[in-house]
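Table 4 source record.
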Amino acid sequence: MNFDFIKWAMNPFMLMFLAVFTGMLLGKLLKIGTSGALFTGLGIGWAIMKAANKVVESGQGNVGAAEKLLKVSVVDKGFFSLFLILFVAAVGLLAADKIAVIIKKYGPKFIILGFIITFLGAGTTYVLTVLSNGANPYEVSGVYTGALTSSPGLAAALETARDHAKEWSGDYANLTEHDKNRILSILNPGTVPDASMVTSLPPEAMDSFLVNAEAGVGVGHAIGYPFGVLIVILAMRLIPKIFGLNMEKEYETFRAEMKEAEEAGGVKHIEPVSFDLIAFALACAGGYTFGMLKINLGPLGYFSLGSTGGVLIISLILGYIGKIGFLNFRMDKKILGTIREVGLAFFLGIVGLRYGFAVVDSLTGSGLYLAFVSTAVGIVSMIVGFVIGKYVFKINWIMLSGAICGGMTSTPGLGVAIDAVGSDDPAAGYGATYPFALFGMVLFTIILHKLPM
């Protein structure tokens, strides 16, 4: 009997199941629900990446399996997207019946909140970059998109970094000594730059600078993302305790507002079916397609909702409509709730597996400052967003928890908010805030590159 232990241990399916199994056990023990999958995933991801590197370096064992694991960052991103789509589609359909009422009542407040949270994140990022006086500006812009867990924001940051790097390196001779040293340090990390020794950049150096700038955004995003996820998960659990929220009172306020809206005819009542797989698949496919559409915003470049935003918006719309011919988008809440939990557990487990090594590495290496920036961005954005939403806009916590996660463009946070609140209602606040927060994220990412650092 022959058993390849390395091939078994580095199989993505085995790793995903292990992360979810151990994560759900941890979640039950610590009463943190599906969030446990993120924490065990981080540990397993770090350990398996370290083991794979050792196998490749030593050349002993199944080198092919180790190289494949390293190439895809433990688990292929396709699995990440699949479970995220399943989770978001289920959440959107669950929360859809009240979406029209919620937008009518809170809409302008959610729009403002989305811009405020992304602005706070960008402002905090900029201040900490200036204070560092030596941080790679491209890595920091990546941290901003990572801290707010935004893939469309990452796309905007990459595009903006490319344009900024071309402009910066092309005008090298006219730059200040400080900016020249910044460019040289990005070209040659780990060295002490001396701009007086380099009067111009040859074409090959300019090309290299372009590559390094884009890579810096990717590195910053990879470090910022898991910390952004961790902060929003902790915040959803701790904010009610820190600010002494009376959850029963919050529920009463929310229920009273929804009852008033229902009596005014704001909720469509449609008899649900147990489950309609055709309708569910249509919501996923239609949303994914909608998320791929790109809107030209002129000097701001192109804007798109991405797969998460597209699936969420279309699921909310179809769920609100309820029925189209033989398709029924109002389904049994228990079945959709199961799909939601499976999708979220695997999604969080995969996030941990893919970013575990980056998290540990950042805490022990040069990425420590970037990890600090990401944490600060998340804390400032969420706490100030909460204070404004709760005490200025007077939004109850049930809606506000989803709106804050939408302002952070944090799908994992939404899952935790749903767990913590005990209902799917925060998803409506998330869906109403997310598109505007995403636009703000793209806008402020571009502005970050225009400001002097």
